[in-house]
C-alpha cells in the first residue's frame, strides 16, 4: 500500500458517515458472473466496510483486510460478522484460498509489482476477482466549473489518476486493461452501473474531507479549501457517482 493510502484512518468516523455505500447490483453481477456458489471472499482495503456488508448480507464469509487499524475498528462496529485482518495486501499472510477476491476503490493503492499473481494465488481454481468504484462528479457542469475554480489555489484536481495512465475516454479502463493482458486471468468484463445521488451540501463537504487529495494538505490549508468549496455549493448537491465493475476469472494455477 502507498503512504497516501494510510491517511484514511485519521478520518475513519467521517469516512463511514459521509462516503456513499454501494448498490446491491454489484453483488448480483458478481454472483451471476461466478456461475457457482460464492461462499468465501477476501476483501482488499476494506476500509470501514462499505462493501463488506453487501457480501456478508448475502451469506458470504468475508475476510476484510486493511492496513489501518482505525478503519478496521470502524468496520467491526458495522459488520461484526466479518473476520478482519490488519494487513496491507502485500503483507497479508494466509494459506486460505477464496471463491472471490474483491476490492472497492482500493486496488489502485496496491503496489504494481506482483499484484495480479498475488490475487491469483489467493483464489481457488476458477475463482473470481472483482474490482469496483468510480469518481464522484457534479451533475451540473456549471457547478463543476465553480468548484474547480474554488479548489484550484489548493489542488489542481482531487481525483486519483489511472494507475496505468489509461485515457478517460478509452472504453476499457484500469484494472481491466491490466487484467486483459495478465497471464493469470481470463473472461475479463467491464460493467457500468449508473448512480445518481442528491446530498446535503454539508455532507458533500464531509465527503471531501475523506478524499486522499485533501488529506495530503496541511490541516489549515485543507480547512480553507473546504470552506471555499462550501461557499459555492447549493443547499442540495446533485452528483453522478457511476460505478465501474471489473470482473475476471483465475485461469490456470499460479506459478509462484
Q: Can you walk through the features of this model?
A:
The chain is of the alpha/beta class and 256 residues long. It folds into 2 domains: 1-134 and 165-195 and 241-256, Rossmann fold, CATH 3.40.50.150; 136-160 and 196-240, no CATH class. The chain is built from 10 helices and 10 strands. The strands form 2 sheets. Strands 3-2-1-4-5-10-7 form a 7-stranded mixed β-sheet, sandwiched between helices. A 3-stranded antiparallel β-sheet has the order 6-9-8. α3 links the parallel β1 and β2. α1 (12-18) crosses α8 (201-208) and α6 runs antiparallel to α10 (219-230). The longest helix has 12 residues, at 219-230. The chain is globular. The two termini are 21 Å apart.
Output the keywords.
globular, Rossmann fold, 2 domains, 7-stranded mixed sheet, 31% helix
* H/E topology pattern: HHEHEHEEHEEHHEEHHHEE
Q: How does the major sheet shape up?
A: 7 strands, mixed
Can you count the helices?
Answer: 10
Give the rounded overall mean pLDDT: 95
Extended strand count? 10
| Number of domain units | 2
Helix content: 25-40%
Report strand %: 15-25%
- Unreliable runs: none
In CATH, the architecture of the largest domain is 3-Layer(aba) Sandwich
Annotated CATH topology of the largest domain:
Rossmann fold
**How are the strands of the biggest sheet laid out side by side?**
3-2-1-4-5-10-7
Calculate the terminal CA-CA distance, rounded to whole Å.
Answer: 21 Å
Which of globular, elongated, flat, extended, rod-shaped describes the shape?
globular
**Content-based structural category:** alpha/beta
Amino acid at each position: 500500500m502507498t503512504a497516501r493510502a494510510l491517511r484514511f484512518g485519521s478520518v475513519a468516523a467521517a469516512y463511514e458517515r459521509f462516503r456513499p455505500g454501494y448498490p446491491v447490483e454489484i453483488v448480483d453481477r458478481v454472483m451471476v458472473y461466478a456461475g457457482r456458489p460464492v461462499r468465501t471472499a477476501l476483501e482488499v482495503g476494506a476500509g470501514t466496510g462499505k462493501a463488506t456488508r453487501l457480501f456478508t448480507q448475502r451469506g458470504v464469509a468475508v475476510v476484510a483486510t486493511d492496513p489501518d487499524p482505525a478503519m478496521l475498528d470502524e468496520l467491526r462496529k458495522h459488520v461484526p460478522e466479518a473476520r478482519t485482518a490488519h494487513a496491507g495486501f502485500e503483507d497479508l499472510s494466509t494459506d486460505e484460498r477464496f471463491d472471490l477476491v474483491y476490492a472497492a476503490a482500493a486496488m489502485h493503492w496496491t503496489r504494481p509489482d506482483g499484484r495480479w499473481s498475488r490475487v491469483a494465488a489467493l483464489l481457488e481454481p476458477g475463482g473470481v476477482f472483482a474490482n469496483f468504484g468510480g469518481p464522484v462528479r457534479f451533475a451540473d457542469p456549471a457547478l463543476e466549473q465553480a468548484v474547480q475554480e474554488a479548489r484550484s489555489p489548493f489542488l489542481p484536481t482531487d481525483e486519483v489518476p489511472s494507475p496505468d495512465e489509461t485515457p478517460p475516454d478509452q472504453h476499457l479502463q484500469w484494472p481491466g486493461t491490466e487484467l486483459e493482458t495478465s497471464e493469470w486471468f481470463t473472461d475479463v468484463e467491464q460493467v457500468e452501473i449508473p448512480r445518481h445521488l442528491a446530498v446535503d451540501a454539508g455532507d458533500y463537504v464531509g465527503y471531501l474531507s475523506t478524499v486522499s487529495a485533501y488529506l495530503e494538505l496541511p490541516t489549515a490549508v485543507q480547512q480553507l479549501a473546504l470552506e471555499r468549496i462550501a461557499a459555492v455549493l447549493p443547499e442540495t448537491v446533485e452528483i453522478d457517482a457511476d460505478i465501474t465493475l471489473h470482473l475476471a476469472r483465475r485461469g490456470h494455477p499460479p506459478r509462484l
